[in-house]
Amino acid sequence: MSSIRGRLTNNLYLVWLEWPEECFRVNTQDLSYLRKIVPKGSKVVQAKTRKGFLRALKSATHVITWYFEEAWFSDAPRLKVLATPSAGKELLPKEGPNGVRIHFGGFHGEIMAESVIAFLLAWCRGFFVSRHYPEGSGVVPRTWLSDKCRSLSGTKAVIVGYGRIGHAISDKLEKLGCKTIGFRRKNISRLKSSVSDADWFIMALPATKETDNLLNDSLISHLPKKCVIVNVGRGNSIDEKALLSALKRRRLSGAYLDVVKSEPLNTLSRMNDAEIPENLFLMPHSAAFTPEYVKMCFKELKDEGLI
Length: 307
Known about the structure:
By secondary structure, the protein is of the alpha/beta class. The chain has nine helices and eleven strands. It has a six-stranded parallel sheet, covered by helices on one side. The longest helix is centred in the middle third of the chain and has 16 residues, at about 110-125.
């Protein structure tokens, strides 16, 4: 009986991270890393199905998962920590019973900042415009490309959504000589008066009612024509009809969208291939892709004292 009680006092880390994209699924190397960083005497259990997860939930003290229903708290009497790699708040309850800590991932900034900077550098150095060389084939002439390249250093980026991801983007841009200014809820009222000279308008916003269609006709009217839109937050924050119109009219220089209102991309109705202008670049919500993703999640939990 005493040995049973001893085992029950130990932590059990239940990991249920199954996802279509391979980099978002836990693998044997990730689990090996987790087992090295949990306290001695703890157990790590992987669930591969919903049924298996719910069966193991009753013994779990720590749960790391993409998805959790509020009703499941009653099936988890030992639960101390509920964590997800996701930065978005859509798949987990925002609050749990007393004593249960809810954690949303905050490690994405380093990865997503690289995605943003990769696009900005490619734009500055003419990688995209060279596709539209009038002859349509062969080597792009140096003389034609020479006045279409610029330096990222000396430009200005306005970042809306200045949390962990926004700060990470800002830090990397500043190191490359790009001036940045960040906006969050407390100073958003000054946004329109601060964008008239923006080269880049970068969005890293969560999906809330307050962020719905933040980039709309009114805000676009305050942006300079040279401005390029970058969205690595959530698709709800852009009025897509207004953006498409502005891009087609060259009211804005370009846009890079990692997210859209309706995903996946192949289900879109308003952004089908026939409607996408050449200055709009779409990616399939991939700004955080990296084979280190799950390991980074585990490391963050350790660093923040949740493991």
